[in-house]
Please model this.
Amino acid sequence: MALLKAPTKQKTTSLQVRLEEDVRVSLNKYAQFIDASPSYVVSEALKLLFKRDQEFKRWLGQHAKSGGQNEEAALAKAASQT
Model:
């Protein structure tokens, strides 16, 4: 059973990243496995990371008042999603 669910339409933005070759190959294969795009897999994997990392949630709570409000709100949303 796949850990990620099929994609839904959401507002997106672009980000360029560099990956180790073996990670890129696995990413593409996982995307193919769940019939989704690599971008979707990265997005959902990061949401899962943000949701499960308790130390990050504590840190985010301490730093929620600083920085851009839109960015902080997006981080808080990603960390709290179930």
Observations:
- The chain has one domain: 22-80.
- The chain has a mean pLDDT of 84.
- Residues 46 and 57 are 13 Å apart (CA to CA).
